[in-house]
Amino acid sequence: MAQNVTNVAQVEEVSSTRRVIAASSVGTLIEWYDFYIFGTLAKIISEQFFPKDNPTAALLATLATFAAGFVIRPFGALFFGRLGDLIGRKYTFLVTLVIMGGSTFAIGLVPGYKTIGFAAPAIVFVLRLLQGLALGGEYGGAATYVAEHSPEGKRGFWTSFIQTTATLGLFLALGIILIVRQTLGIEVFNDWGWRIPFILSVFLVGISVFIRMKMSESPLFAKMKKEGKTSANPLAESFQKKDNLKMVLVALLGATAGQGVVWYTGQFYALSFLQNACNIEFVQSNIIISVALLIGTPFFIVFGALSDKIGRKYIMMAGMLIAVISYRPIYTIMYSDANLKTKEAIEDKTVIKVKNEVKGADSLITTVTTKEFTDGTKFKETVKKKFPVDAELKAAMPKDKLKPETKKEVTLPQDLFYKMIGLVLIQVLFVTMVYGPIAAFLVEIFPTRIRYTSMSLPYHIGNGVFGGLVPLISTRLVEFTRPAPGAPPADPLFGLWYPIIIAAVCFVIGMLYISNKTNNLDTE
Amino acid sequence: MSVIKRIFGLLWAAMGLGIIPLAVMRAMQEIAEKPSEENWIFWSIVIVVLMPIISFSLITFGIFALKGEYDTLAN
């Protein structure tokens, strides 16, 4: 009889823990999805909301908005972290979810620049900031909430489910975008179909809010609140007390900064590199990343669980070190596999089609060149030249306005396609090593009374600022190697130096100053 | 080990101090050469957002390390 009661209690405990993990993870996953559709659709958003006169400026403006989304995250971490330590984890990360869902939905409804002028980018910018704020509050809450429910010795394993959400969120974003794009067709998608992934968010968030409403408060926080031990001023306690501040600093410089750059290089920079440096066709490049993410995701749990056995530090540090050593070789192979200069074209399979049409007062000449190579690679180049029909107007136009618009698309054969998936997968594995154990590491180094605030800030500075700026800084570093405007860069891999240097410094600091010991969570 | 940690503390603090003037000089040079919108946006983000975070955290961390605050491993 007593045995049965124990078994029932154990089953209930497991079921309750699963509910906690599922409810926390689904909400966090949706928040990441919301956050990533903006980044993934950066090019379309720049065309819709920013002046088209200078496409580079438009893209950079979008990247800046993207960065703003990341830069604002630490403020969200402070604001919601404080709330979470004052009023509780449950209500705080419920609020962040609602803000995120509302902002994403609203972005899907904002009229374009052509319709409402400068108000369009301004509104989008504000909504993007709200997204950043919400995300800043969400992750720390979810990680803390799950960690405070987890049994001792299994915290790495349980919190690793939260760690999968960022990657799964990106996967979901890429998947939904691809499905909508394929269903509607490219033109309709670029025109208005891109709004669907944003609007869809409101339904996903609705479901998640419903699930989270039914959850109870974290047991450690509830106990502490009952005993009147909660912090009166979590911000001051976190960052003005030397003992906590030094932990915040070591968490940032010895773990999260390196984790952030490895994370963004393996997922975002890899995609950007495939599309912009290797010119891999849109759908194929997204499939490469999606498949690699899908295969790699279970390893977050593997490394999270392993960290319960052998400690968090060495897994994270090994991930950083291998990334530092292998980024250049990996990207060299990726670049050379897609480099047409090293391939042999089949002469009779080269086709050039020229189409001349008049659109209003403009003449549009479209030249499409398709080539096939002996290794099975296909290449398509579309050059659009637009100029006024009137010769005088044409002569008066500035030269840069007459510059043709060129789009290059490389489609890899099956063997290189699989090889590319393998190369991205290796990078995703580095990500799982540095990211899988980090939630458990962060919650364990701070006390319960200020945990939400203290762990959120280094995480979002490391991940959001150091990591979030990888696309912007790396793209810019490659620009430095361009001998002349419009000329190909001398070193297309130069952008990798930013993540390599940050991860290397972080590795040294982590190795020197972080312990491999796992801690129990206290209620002080 | 504690001695190494303290010596490295000096290095972190020096890096934190040195990185700001280097970044500002580079920004001024690039903006002077090409005062485009792209340059302004990029360098504003680097100088206003990234550099203060790197600099402040490295200097403070370095000073803590130098004073022996991390002689016992952080956990």
CATH superfamily of the largest domain in chain A: MFS general substrate transporter like domains
Low-confidence stretches of chain B: none
The portion of residues forming beta strands of chain A comes to 5-15%
Please count the beta strands of chain B (DSSP E, at least 2 residues each).
0
The biggest chain-chain interface is:
A-B, 35 and 25 residues
Give the percentage of residues in beta strands of chain B.
Answer: under 5%
Total beta strands of chain A: 4
Identify the CATH class of the largest domain in chain A.
Mainly Alpha
Q: What would you call the quaternary organization?
A: heterodimer
Supply Rg of chain B: 16 Å
Q: What general form of chain B does the structure show? A: elongated
CATH architectural group of the largest domain in chain A: Up-down Bundle
Q: How are the secondary structure elements laid out?
A:
The complex is a heterodimer of chains A (about 525) and B (about 80).
Chain A lengths: L1 H39 L1 H8 L5 H17 L1 H14 L2 H19 L5 H4 L2 H31 L5 H30 L1 H8 L1 H19 L5 H8 L7 H6 L2 H36 L4 H15 L1 H13 L2 H26 L12 E9 L2 E11 L5 E11 L2 H6 L8 E7 L2 H22 L2 H8 L5 H17 L2 H11 L16 H17 L11
Antiparallel strand pairs in A: 1-2, 2-3, 3-4
Helix pairs in contact in A: 1-5, 1-7, 1-8, 1-10, 2-3, 3-7, 3-20, 4-5, 4-7, 4-20, 5-7, 5-10, 7-8, 7-20, 8-9, 8-14, 8-15, 8-19, 13-14, 13-16, 13-18, 13-20, 13-22, 14-18, 15-18, 16-18, 16-22
Chain B lengths: L1 H32 L3 H30 L9
Helix pairs in contact in B: 1-2
3D architecture notes:
The complex is a heterodimer of chains A (524) and B (75). By secondary structure, chain A is α+β, with helices and mostly antiparallel strands. Chain A has a 4-stranded antiparallel beta sheet. In chain A, a hairpin with a 5-residue loop joins strand 2 and strand 3. The longest helix of chain A is centred in the N-terminal third of the chain and has 39 residues. The mean pLDDT of chain A is 87. Chain B is elongated, with a radius of gyration of 16 Å. The longest helix of chain B has 32 residues. Chain B has one domain. With 75 residues, chain B is an all-alpha fold. At the A-B interface, helix 3, helix 13, helix 20, helix 21 and helix 22 of A face helix 1 and helix 2 of B.
